[in-house]
Write a structure and sequence with these properties.
eight-stranded parallel sheet, alpha/beta, TIM Barrel
Length: about 220
């Protein structure tokens, strides 16, 4: 199937209330343009250098999502144009995003990344840290950052019930924060990738990050 056909199939499956972020890491400019010409605008990258290179060569109405681990010293390179940073996993990083957003005279939308997997190699805040940072956001301590919601990655396992438990945990945390801080109007729960997005949708995801199912393994 073509990239355009893959996009249509996935969008038909997930529905209009769920945002599809096409993960374009390691994909070529022509491949991304094929998706763009099919009407797609949300693309995710996990490396700053690749993201900035592509952003400079592709149409400026693309909504770029930073979905990988972000080092504080790299924030300045994406601050002028990034649409959504999914991977805010420390107050130190949030402080740098605030600094660079202010310097660029813009507000940057962010998600807090929560560690829900059993793997220590994955990044993210624990629940208590997430509550603490959300409270600081609610107090407007980072005025150039807007908290949209949460992101998480499940354990890489064939045990689908374990994946579902992790996703449901994050959904519960999202609901807790939404109830506690209604003024933030949290509206994004970013869970689900190519291998587990049907489970994520069942658990309340409204943003999925899908690469191989869109672009294929070419």
């Amino acid at each position: 199937m073509s990239i355009a056909e893959n996009l249509k199939r996935i969008k038909d499956e997930i529905g209009t209330d769920v945002t599809l972020v096409a993960v374009s890491k390691f994909k070529s400019i022509p491949e991304i343009m094929e998706a763009y010409q099919a009407g797609h605008r949300d693309f995710g990258e996990n490396r700053v250098q690749e993201l900035t290179d592509k952003a400079s060569q592709l149409p400026n109405d693309i909504r770029w999502h930073m979905i990988g681990h972000l080092q504080t010293n790299k924030v300045k390179y994406i601050a002028p144009f990034i649409y959504l940073i999914h991977s805010v996993d420390s107050e130190k990083l949030l402080t740098e995003i605030q600094k660079q957003a202010s310097r660029n005279q813009r507000t940057i939308d962010i998600l807090l990344q929560v560690h829900i997997a059993k793997e220590e190699t994955k990044f993210g805040l624990n629940d208590e840290e997430c509550h603490q940072l959300t409270e600081k956001m609610a107090k407007n301590l980072f005025p150039n950052c807007r908290l949209r919601g949460l992101m998480g990655m499940a354990t890489n396992t064939n045990d689908l019930s374990a994946v579902e438990r992790e996703f449901l945990h994050l959904k519960h945390l999202f609901s807790q924060l939404s109830d506690r801080f209604p003024e933030l109007q949290l509206d994004v729960l970013s869970i689900g990738m190519s291998g587990d997005y049907p489970i994520a949708l069942k658990c309340g995801s409204n943003m999925v990050r899908i690469g191989s199912a869109v672009f294929g393994s070419r």
